[in-house]
Every structure is written in C-alpha cells, then in structure tokens.
C-alpha cells in the first residue's frame, strides 16, 4: 500500500518536473524576443497605433493616424524594436531570477532621436505641401515656428525657402526632449517582491528536479531489477498526465491571462494575448516532447521489468 502511494506520488513528481522544465525555458536569454518576432508583435502594435494613443493626446498632435504610424515606424524600425525588447526582457528576467543583482541596462538613443527629427520634419513638409497657397490677407502673421501653417507661402516669398528649416527646428525641439540614452530605473518595492517570488519559484523547480532524479535513482539502487515494473507504472502514468496537461493546462492558463487583460486597450491586449499564446505553444510543444520521452521510458521499463521477471522465474526453475 505504501509503495503504491509512493509510486503515485513519484508519478506526479515527474509531471511537475516536466512542467517546470517547460516553464523554465521562459527565462532563457532571447526567448521572449524570439517569440515576439514569431507573432510579429512589432507589426501588430505599429499597425494599431491609432487606437493605442489616447484620444486627448491625438488632439494635440497635428498628424493623422497613418502619419503617426509612419513617424513611429521610421523612428524605430522592427529590428530596433526587437533588439530593445530582447535586451530589456533579458535584463528583467536576469534580475527576477537573481542571475543579476540590479537592472543594468542602458540603450543609446542618438540614432532614434535623429530618426524622429527626420520623420517629423518629413511629415510636416508633406502636410504643408497639401495646404493651399496663402492669400494676401493670410501673409500677415504667417509663421512656421509652432505647428503647421494653414497655407503655403507663394514661391516668390523670401521665407518660402526657409520653411523646411523651420520645420526641422520644430522637429528637433521635439526630438531633443528625449534623453541621449535610456536607462532602466532601479527596482521598486513591488519588483523586489516579485523577484523574491520568481527566485523562489526557480529554486522550487530545481528542487523538484533534484528530488525526482534522486527518488528514481534511489528506487533503482534499492530494488534494482524489481524496480522496473514500478517505474513502468510511474512513467506511463506521468506520461499520460503530461499529455492531459498539454491539452488542458496550457489552454486554461492562456484563457486566464487573456481574461486578466480585459481592462487594457483592445489592440494592446490582442497583441499581448498573441505573444502569450505563442509562448504557451512553445511550452505545450516542449511538454509534448517530454511526454513522448516519459512514455517511452515507461515502455522500456515495462519491457525490462517483464524480462527480469521471466529471467528470475527461469533462474528459479533451473535450480
């Protein structure tokens, strides 16, 4: 009876070890960045910029949603976005899992600032070019130092050759509001608390691995050939549990996370849901592969158990 309970317990321990191995992959350097590329997170977010920006904020921006998208995508292209995201997520996972003691991350913004200035200037020039030519009454008080004028200067006006320069100066004043580099702020109390939870979680996963390996090794050392039939039951049950969790557990987790995003902007929530789904699909694949290994180990143990059982019977009969 006690042995049966222990076998059942060890089967669940194998299951938790497998799930832990799948979850453990999230903290691997570059993992989140790779999944973001796979679900085209940048393309999703940049395509929904119009809905991502608050309505009040857009009132103060003299550009359409399409122009805003062009400015942002020109300023930060896909490769830059994924590079920054990968480095930031790696920095946070390194801190949360206690691989590093602080958030040591600095990203130079000089190129981004230059791209932003160029993109805003081009957008202003394009919008200005669509304006009608100024009437004589509109020339008085005409200026291009604060926003886009409501009309174009005639080509014979001396200021007409300076318009692009004036727009560039406006764009520069916007770009110069960005710092020369972006440095992550040091952890607040909430992040420090989360770090404790995550670090403990990683330790628990590693402890489960050690316990699983230790118990199986102990099983073999104590029972030797007699252990194989019990191990067959353990691995086969664990494999079936892994298959069941692959079909139910990850989907349930995905729905739970998705439901928790209902208060977010719909476009943002959709993009994050897709990213989470991609990560969970990887975990599902990993656990699926592990279930094959576990079931194979169960089948091999069963064959060895039967072999040694018949061998023992043959040895007894021979005597």
What does this 3D model show about the protein?
This protein is mostly helical. It has 13 helices and 2 strands. It has helices at 2-24, 31-38, 41-47, 49-52, 55-59, 65-75, 78-96, 110-129, 136-139, 163-175, 189-223, 227-259, 266-318, and strands spanning 106-108, 181-183. Strands 1-2 form a two-stranded antiparallel ribbon. Helix 1 packs across helix 11 and helix 1 (2-24) packs across helix 12 (227-259). The relative contact order is 0.13. The mean pLDDT is 84.
Mean pLDDT: 84
Q: State Rg.
A: 31 Å
Structural class: mainly alpha
Determine the number of helices (DSSP H or I, runs of at least 4 residues).
13
Amino- and carboxy-terminal Cα gap: 32 Å
Strand content: under 5%
Work out the number of β strands. Answer: 2
The helix/strand order is HHHHHHHEHHHEHHH
State the major sheet.
2 strands, antiparallel
**Which word captures the global form?**
elongated
């Amino acid at each position: 009876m006690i042995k049966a309970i222990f076998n059942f317990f060890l089967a669940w321990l194998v299951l938790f070890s497998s799930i832990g191995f799948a979850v453990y992959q999230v903290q691997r350097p570059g993992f989140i960045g790779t999944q973001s590329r796979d679900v085209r997170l940048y393309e999703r977010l940049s395509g929904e910029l119009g809905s991502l920006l608050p309505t009040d904020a857009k009132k103060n921006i003299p550009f359409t949603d399409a122009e805003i998208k062009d400015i942002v995508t020109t300023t930060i292209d896909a490769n830059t976005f994924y590079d920054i995201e990968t480095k930031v997520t790696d920095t946070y996972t390194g801190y949360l899992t206690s691989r590093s003691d602080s958030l040591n991350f600095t990203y130079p913004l000089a190129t981004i600032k230059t791209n932003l200035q160029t993109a805003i200037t081009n957008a202003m020039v394009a919008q200005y070019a669509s304006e009608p030519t100024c009437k004589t009454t509109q020339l008085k008080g005409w200026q291009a130092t604060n926003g886009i004028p409501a009309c174009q200067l005639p080509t014979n006006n001396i200021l007409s050759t300076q318009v692009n320069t004036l727009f560039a100066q406006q764009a520069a004043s916007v770009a110069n509001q960005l710092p020369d580099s972006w440095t992550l702020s040091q952890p607040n109390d909430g992040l420090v608390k989360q770090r404790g939870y995550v670090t403990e979680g990683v330790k628990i996963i590693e402890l489960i691995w050690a316990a699983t390996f230790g118990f199986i090794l102990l099983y073999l050392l104590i029972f030797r050939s007699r252990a194989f039939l019990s191990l067959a039951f353990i691995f086969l049950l664990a494999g079936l549990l892994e298959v069941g969790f692959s079909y139910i557990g990850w989907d349930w987790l995905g729905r739970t996370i998705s439901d928790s995003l209902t208060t977010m902007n719909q476009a943002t929530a959709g993009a994050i849901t897709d990213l989470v789904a991609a990560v969970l699909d990887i975990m599902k694949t990993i656990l699926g592969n592990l279930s094959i290994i576990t079931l194979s180990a169960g089948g091999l143990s069963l064959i060895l158990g039967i072999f040694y059982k018949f061998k023992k019977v043959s040895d007894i009969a021979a005597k």
